[in-house]
Design goal:
single chain, mainly alpha, 2 domains
């Protein structure tokens, strides 16, 4: 839709590199197509490590402090606000794990050291802790699920909306308002397709897990 406004080099190289999560290997594909989606690469890496991180943080809460300090030192050394390296955002990821297990963990205070790098870095930790503690009981669970379901989609497309509205990007020969309308339509369509795929895959996965649990219980009873 945005031609070379959104990527450099070959479009097909960008698409293939992003599809296989190796876009960070090449200068002309890093932060390409949907630059806001760069964080999906380290995020996938952290999800692969989640079973191990979850066990470690649950058993040894002090490891959160170690991870936060390592992250702070890494950010001080590398600088910037973005990195494909897992360590750059591993602190936030482990913070969420630790908070889910025990919000009284004293090492949840260690993110305060992020002010050494930049003062604003402490705000996401503080906001997340407050929201988790309140649990937003004043909002219906259905509303929270709806917000959670589409938050990622909104984030992925927000950059395109901002660039079109500020006229840094142009969509064909359309004016700003027509371009925004078309982008809304395309975003909603892609979100709908994505949710359909997710709904098609998830129930099967859950059924497989349920069957395994039932078989496991039957085996124990026998």
């Amino acid at each position: 839709m945005f031609s070379e406004q959104a990527y450099r080099g070959s479009l097909w190289k960008n698409i293939v590199a992003h599809f296989f999560f190796v876009d960070f290997y090449f200068a002309d594909t890093s932060y390409g197509i949907i630059s806001a989606a760069w964080f999906l690469v380290p995020l996938m890496g952290m999800y692969l490590l989640f079973p191990y991180l979850n066990k470690l943080i649950k058993k040894r809460g002090y490891l959160l402090g170690v991870v936060i300090l390592a992250m702070v030192l890494f950010r001080m050394d590398k600088g910037g606000l973005a990195s494909f390296n897992l360590l750059f955002f591993l602190g936030e990821f482990c913070f969420g794990i630790a908070l889910a297990h025990n919000k009284k963990n004293i090492f949840l205070l260690t993110p305060v050291f992020t002010v050494i790098v930049a003062q604003f870095m402490i705000y996401p930790f503080a906001a997340f802790y407050v929201i988790h503690s309140l649990r937003l009981r004043f909002l219906p669970s259905r509303t929270l699920k709806l917000i959670g379901k589409y938050t990622l989609t909104i984030f992925l497309f927000h950059e395109a909306f901002i660039y079109i509205w500020t006229e840094n990007w142009h969509l064909y020969t359309l004016n700003k308002y027509s371009a925004v309308f078309l982008l809304i339509v395309v975003s909603l369509f892609l979100t709908y397709i994505s949710c359909k795929i997710q709904n098609f895959i998830t129930p099967k996965t859950l059924n497989i897990r349920d069957n395994k649990d039932k078989l496991g219980k039957m085996g124990k009873n026998e």
